[in-house]
Amino acid sequence: MPVDLNTSVPHSARIYDFLLGGKDNFEADRQAAAAIVESSPSLPISMRANRQYMARVAHYLAAERGIRQFLDIGTGLPTSPNLHEVVQSVDAASRIVYVDNDPIVLVHARALLTSAPQGTTAYIDADLRDVEAILTSPEVRQNLDPAEPVSISLIAVLQFITDEAEAHAIIDGLLAPFPPGSTLSISTVTAHNLQAVEAAAVYRARGIPAKERTDDEVRALFRGLELVDPGVVLVNRWRPDAEAEAIEDTHVQMSGGVAVKN
């Protein structure tokens, strides 16, 4: 069935792709990106920092916490290293289910399915808000064992959920079927950076819902869970490597953290 990309309307995933130097974007996305960067010049740096954060978190969960099952929601366009590449480099038998509802991500989903032969990857075309559809999908049922811990990733997606009650309900629903030892990883737009606040305003002006959050609001998303050190911080400050250490905080517009279900 043909996929309607609706290329005349900017889309967050394609804007993100353009700012990361990708080619899967259209004129409307590039125009929106130019407007956002005009008010927020450090956004491309911040997006790269966020991508590096995802990779560090994934490696930590696989290498140090022994997680072997991953549910990544709001996957975005394939950009190496993808989550499955990181975790399967630790254990090739790791199982990953990706979720996104962007038609252009669906078009490129095959790039997300290049699993090591010992493990599996799967892709679900679903909306973050439809938790039941995600959890009852054949992809989740066939690839994720509910008796074993699962890592749930919400990387650079919750800023598009502007109602806190809805965000909490989504998180509670996603975690509910999985056992203690499961984890939640989040990154989202911080309210403590003026450029981030201005960029969110430009997103909204372009018809894309966006919300910046204070650190306390981000911590509240982890309620009932045990935050892993260093807690909620700018993404470049979460267990940084040398590359992350070199990034100035003023350029980073995302904060996040990782927590464990007890």
Automatic annotation (TrEMBL):
Pfam families: Methyltransf_19
GO molecular function terms noted in the UniProt entry: methyltransferase activity
EC number(s) reported in the record: 2.1.1.-
Assigned keywords, A-Z: Methyltransferase, Transferase
Transmembrane regions: none
Single GO biological process annotation from the record: methylation
UniProt keyword annotation of Methyltransferase present: yes
Official protein name in the record: SAM-dependent methyltransferase
Organism: Paractinoplanes rhizophilus
